[in-house]
Write a structure and sequence with these properties.
alpha+beta; globular
């Protein structure tokens, strides 16, 4: 079953898919040869459905693994729109970057939409799994969560587990099965808080609290520091934070400082001209080369 979703005129499918590493973390899969993004979607379905998403003229083509009714189709469309940020208005960002010649490519190429998961909970769990470890370990942890606790779709692929599925599991499960290390008690506590309703992370999407208050709430979650919070902010549409880590610092040194290590203050000053968009400007700047053929081969 195929579904067509119209996209904004400034939307770039390839830039969005390869905006960061989420496209290769289950239950996402990315086929770099066909430029098809696969995703298992669970919300609003009697059982998960696998969708294969590709670019078509003026929109997205979404091929579902089974025929869907009206309500299920609407649910899939909602989640795909959310994942690809189709309702985000980036015109202010494009105006801010276009006046800077070396950043004008961002608007021209329609960069700036960062792929995200259907839920903030999934993005939060994945973000915790990226901290203080290699990317290969992140892939192993997320893959284990999906394999162990995900619900099976028609084609055998599995969904990302809900907080309710994670909450009853003992800390030992996260340590031994998921290989989450020091994150084991953090993931269990987070799942319990979300499943019980004590913490509503989905509300962050529409939260109008100050940046300081929102970051404070995020950092109240064990395992979430400045890096995770500032990256998560980008996925809910707030781009004030730079989310600096060893990779971005090294990339900035190569791209903007003739290979010399730069202080965090220097990096912050460089992007300060973009004000509330500075975190997104930095990320686009550091990942511009990701659509180069030699880089795609490494995905």
């Amino acid at each position: 079953m195929d579904i067509k979703i119209t996209t904004p005129v400034d939307f770039n499918f390839r830039r969005t898919v390869l905006s960061h590493g989420w496209c290769v973390l289950p239950p996402f899969e990315f086929d770099k040869n066909t430029w098809i993004l696969v995703r298992v979607i669970e919300r609003g379905q009697p059982r998960p459905v696998t969708v294969k998403i590709s670019s078509t003229k003026g929109g997205l083509k979404v091929s579902a693994s089974r025929r869907l009714g009206q309500k299920a189709t609407a649910s899939v469309v909602r989640d795909v729109r959310h994942m690809f940020r189709l309702d985000d208005d980036l015109q202010d960002f494009y105006r801010a970057t276009t006046i800077e010649p070396e950043f004008a490519w961002i608007a021209t190429e329609g960069a700036g939409r960062l792929l995200r998961s259907p839920t903030v909970f999934e993005d939060l769990v994945k973000m915790i799994c990226t901290t203080n470890c290699s990317w290969s370990l992140t892939e192993k942890m997320v893959g284990a969560l999906v394999s162990e606790l995900g619900e099976e779709s028609d084609d055998g692929r599995k969904s990302f587990p809900t907080a309710a599925a994670l909450a009853p599991k003992p800390e030992k499960f996260f340590r031994d099965k998921i290989r989450a290390g020091y994150r084991a008690p953090y993931l269990k506590e987070l799942a319990q808080r979300v499943a019980s309703g004590a913490l509503n992370v989905e509300s962050w999407l529409t939260n109008e609290a100050s940046l300081t208050d929102l970051i404070k709430e995020m950092k109240s979650i064990k395992g979430v520091g400045n890096y995770a919070a500032e990256n998560l902010l980008k996925l809910i549409g707030r781009y004030d934070g730079l989310a600096l880590d060893s990779w971005t610092r090294a990339q900035f040194a190569r791209a903007r400082d003739q290979g010399r290590p730069a202080s965090d203050k220097k990096i912050a000053r460089f992007y300060s001209r973009f004000n509330s968009w500075r975190g997104l400007a930095l990320w686009c700047d550091m990942t511009r080369h990701w659509l180069d053929p030699e880089h795609i081969l490494n995905w």
